[in-house]
Amino acid sequence: MIDLHCHSTFSDGSFSPEELARMAVEAGVSALALTDHDTMAGLPRFLAAAEGKGFRAVPGVELSVNWTPGGVMHMLGYWMEMENPELVRQLAWIRDGREMRNREILEKLNALGLSMTWEEVKAKAGEDVVGRPHFAQVMLERGYAKDKNEAFDKWLGDGKPGYADRPRLTAEDAVELICRAGGVAVLAHPFTLHLGKEAQEALWNRLAEVGLSGVECYYSEHSSDLTADYLEIARRVGLVPTGGSDFHGEVSPGIRLGTGFGGLNVPDEVLVELEARRPA
């Protein structure tokens, strides 16, 4: 059992890279990928903490991608050269845009009567990237929402009163960037794209042409039927069917490292297939 999708305190997770390494041993996974949002800053600590622990630590990142038809698109990248100049520059551009967006969200929420400070939100983010889940955490503490879903459905989701947009790469640009940095690109949680089977297959084919290697078919929030559909499409398109829990810790209660909501089981051979797609 492997898990190729989790987050630390360097993005919107609640556990440090060192804690994730310890939890990987407890969960019994044979491999774990750290894929923080738009940053690789936590990877050196994660890789160091994983040494000698009996599981394989996979360096990764999750890039936010522009997706105009609706829904959310994220692109996972594994084994990139962390010091690649273009990758470093693009990640900085994404983070700068996120910073501007966060300030705009704060101004909007304050104007709507939801009192909070930047210091409060930043404190929830830990070491690095502030995101909407951190605003949601403050909103929960102040009683503006009963849970994260309500915070997003009422205030923070796309098109809601507290939402603000930010710059993102196109899907093709994200795939090509990962490949040029020596990595392997994987489309994350495709159900968030809100596409039918035919539209999914057309998209996957299009992205495969620019270097996409895999799709996250096994995922905490995919039903068994949806997983079966995605596995079928991946086989037709020639993509590796990858998977992960998208573990965030306390931010997403109920999702456990390795097993998601309890039924997730990503086969070990997926990692072998995915690694075979790495650039020579």
User: CATH class of the largest domain, please?
Assistant: Alpha Beta
> Going by CATH, what is the homologous superfamily of the largest domain?
Metal-dependent hydrolases
End-to-end C-alpha gap: 26 Å
The major β-sheet equals: 7 strands, mixed
**Quick check: average pLDDT?**
93
Shape verdict:
globular
Structural class: alpha/beta
The assigned CATH architecture of the largest domain is Alpha-Beta Barrel
Question: Runs with pLDDT <50, length 5+?
Answer: none
Number of helices: 10
CATH topology of the largest domain: TIM Barrel
Number of domains: 2
Task: Explain this structure.
It is a single chain. By secondary structure, the chain is of the alpha/beta class. It has two domains: 2-82 and 170-275, TIM Barrel, CATH 3.20.20.140; 91-156, DNA polymerase, domain 1, CATH 1.10.150. Helices cover 41% and strands 14% of the residues. It contains ten helices and seven strands. The protein has helices at 17-27, 43-50, 85-111, 118-124, 132-141, 148-156, 171-180, 197-208, 224-237, 269-275; strands at residues 2-3, 31-34, 56-65, 73-78, 184-187, 212-219, 240-244. It has a seven-stranded mixed β-sheet with strand order 1-2-3-4-5-6-7. It starts with a strand and ends in a 5-residue tail after the last helix. The mean pLDDT is 93.
